[in-house]
Amino acid sequence: MEARQSTARGGALGDAVAANLAQWDERAPVHAASPSHHLADFEVDPSYLSDAVRFDLPRLGVIRGLHGVHLQCHIGCDTISLARLGADMTGLDFSPAAIEQAASLSTRSGTHVEFVVSDVHAAADVLGRGRFDLVFTGIGALCFVPEIQRWAGVVSDLLAPGGRLFLREGHPMLWALADPDGSGELRVTRPYFQRSEPTRWDQGGRYAASDAARVNTSSYEWNHGIGEIVTALLGHGMQITGLVEHETVPWVALPGMMVDVGGEFCLADQPERLAASFTLQARKPG
Asked: I need a surface site. Which of 34, 138, 143, 250 has the fewest CB within 10 A?
């Protein structure tokens, strides 16, 4: 419903981050128009929740009355879903185009959320320290964070004493795999652990389920091992309260190798071979 913008970016954007920003600005209106993001369902059904939030409801628990922030919220589907569960939500993303779509969806769906344009590393400076009972972050966010230690510090700074982090993310094991070549084999060809140099992806052509041509096709991503994520949070005083690894992920991450199992996707052959995503929870003492 409400959107505001901050120019706080934590310094000049590097070439990799600038390329990522250009790609997400381009993606935002395409994703908003795509049936796969179900914006029409949000508008016509006031109880509609995103698939990702619905998947984690048993772990999320009661959030009514909590003051929450969704970091790297993109076009706001998960943010609005959390607000519909009763949390007072703020969504933050570095893409002005994404925040424009999120704010529009908030208005059209009749679900109040404040949306803010900011780099994730400046979130505590922009939104205020110690203000939130809940920090939420979802699939496809951490891979755009260069340094997990710095990110963990932002999470700790945002949380009030007793507040918690709820994180659902693609598993670093999944991010380390090669693109499938039709052999059915899982081949590890990319870094599992954090490296200073990102992995560059270049995907040309057109967007799936869309006639929109891709102009900004390059993105730069950093993997973070499970141990690195846990250690970073512990290093900033957080207490780990839950860690669940899942065989599924909410998109076809390995085309030709995965099957739909109720809105999530897992390997068609021996899904127990792959940890495809994980849910991590942590609490700030107090």
From this structure: 34
